[in-house]
Design brief:
Blueprint (H helix, E strand, L loop, with lengths): L3 H26 L2 E6 L2 E6 L5 E7 L4 E6 L2 E8 L4 E3 L7 H13 L8
Antiparallel strand pairs: 1-2, 2-3, 3-4, 4-5, 5-6
């Protein structure tokens, strides 16, 4: 497990990068919007059906995504130098992109 200072630095970097990607995708999409509330990221869907919540969990050094009635817990990968979902190996951006595509049934959604 990485130390707390490293976790905070890397999770801040990863979440800021994801935030910029989601905002860029949001601008051209119109079916979801992004909110940042004190470090908790929310992706809200226009139809009001649900939302995704993305948050760092410092005590256990993971980034959590709550989406589609499931909790996705991403661990730091030294090899990839990124947070990854152990079940699939997807990094934070790739997993979020897949979840958005599934939620909106739109394979064209891309997180730059």
């Amino acid at each position: 497990m990485i130390d707390e200072a490293t976790f905070r630095r890397e999770s801040d970097r990863a979440l800021e990068s994801l935030k910029q990607s989601v905002i860029a995708a949001e601008d051209g999409n119109g079916t979801f919007e992004f909110e940042d509330n004190n470090g908790v990221m929310n992706i809200l869907f226009e139809d009001g059906s649900s939302k995704f919540v993305i948050t760092p969990n410092t005590p256990i050094r993971q980034i959590w995504i709550s989406a589609q009635a499931t909790s996705f817990k991403l661990d730091w990968s030294e090899e990839a130098q990124n947070f990854a979902f152990p079940k699939t190996g997807e990094d934070l951006r790739t997993l979020t992109q897949r979840l958005l595509r599934e939620q909106l049934d739109d394979p064209s959604i891309t997180l730059p």
